[in-house]
Each structure stands twice: as C-alpha cells, then as structure tokens.
C-alpha cells in the first residue's frame, strides 16, 4: 500500500499540475490499516482526493477522509441536499457561511454536502469532465480567498496554501483568478 499510495499521489499531482504531496507516518499507518478491501481503485481515488483537498504538502492523519480516520465509519452523517437546489456559484459563494463554528468538527453537514449535491447534479446530467470542472472551481475559490486574506501577496498566499509560487502564478493565469473580483 505505501508504494501504491506514493505512486498515486505523484500521478494525481502530475495530472493536476501541482506539487506531489507526502503522507505522514500516522497517515500512512491509517492507509495500511484500512487495507482497501474494495480494490486499488479506492486507494487511487483517495490519493486524488487528497491531492486536491489536503491543505499542506505533508498529509497528516487528520487530512484523510473520515472513513479512514474512524475505521470505515464517517464521523457525521450526510445531510440530504436535493440536487439542483442551488446553482454552483451560490454553492461556492456560500461555502464560508457553511463552515462550522470554531471548535466544532468539520463534517459532511457543511460545504462538503453542498459539493456533493453539485457533483451529483452534474453527474446525473452526464456533464463532461465533472472532476475537472469542480477541481478548477475549487482551486479558484481557494486561490482567490488566499489572495484576499494576504492582500494580493502571491508568495504569502502560496505558502499558506502549501503550494509553490510558480504554481500559484500558473493557476492564477489558468483559472483567470482576479483578487479584486467580488
């Protein structure tokens, strides 16, 4: 599992044009413990998810999906959200308001359920390249927010996001991110 996990992290990073992440010892121990009874595809999907979602280059146990952290049982239940109830732009714009209060665990009842609803709607509509669409929008929101928080300082924004300055510059151009946009 460790060898495959490293391979899949590198593969996902290359596909997305980002720096490859690394697993901490604790995170790797949870991966090995899980054993991936489904198949290797499950491990590959988790590594891709981590490449997109983990906030730092070194992935800790807390960065892994809940199923791995809690022995196959998600920490919280999914709050049903009817597909199509909110346009994608509203889902992304509402994400900060959906965050749990300080000290509360982030679970699937917040922005992740909105993301799930949007993904479900796109998949049911047979929309092409859903992963690419949502990844680009997610990255755009992250980068725009980091630039806003750092008052447009790209190097500081890149550091806070755990990416390189060349990566943030390239992503800003690719995604058309403008820190002055509202």
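Q: What amino acid sequence fits the structure above?
A:
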């Amino acid at each position: 599992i460790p060898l495959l996990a490293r391979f899949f992290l590198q593969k996902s990073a290359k596909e997305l044009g980002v720096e490859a992440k690394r697993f901490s010892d604790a995170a790797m121990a949870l991966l090995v413990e899980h054993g991936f009874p489904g198949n290797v595809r499950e491990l590959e999907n988790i590594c891709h998810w981590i490449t997109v979602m983990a906030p730092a280059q070194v992935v800790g146990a807390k960065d892994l999906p809940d199923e791995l952290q809690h022995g196959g049982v998600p920490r919280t239940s999914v709050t049903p959200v009817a597909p199509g109830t909110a346009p994608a732009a509203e889902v992304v714009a509402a994400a900060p308001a959906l965050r749990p209060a300080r000290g509360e665990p982030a679970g699937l009842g917040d922005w992740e359920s909105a993301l799930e609803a949007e993904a479900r709607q796109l998949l049911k509509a047979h929309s092409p390249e859903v992963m690419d669409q949502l990844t680009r929008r997610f990255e755009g929101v992250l980068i725009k927010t980091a630039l806003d928080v750092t008052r447009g300082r790209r190097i500081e924004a890149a550091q806070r996001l755990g990416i390189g300055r060349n990566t943030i510059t390239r992503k800003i151009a690719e995604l058309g991110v403008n820190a002055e946009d509202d």
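Q: And what stands out in the fold?
A: The chain is about 60% helix and 0% strand.
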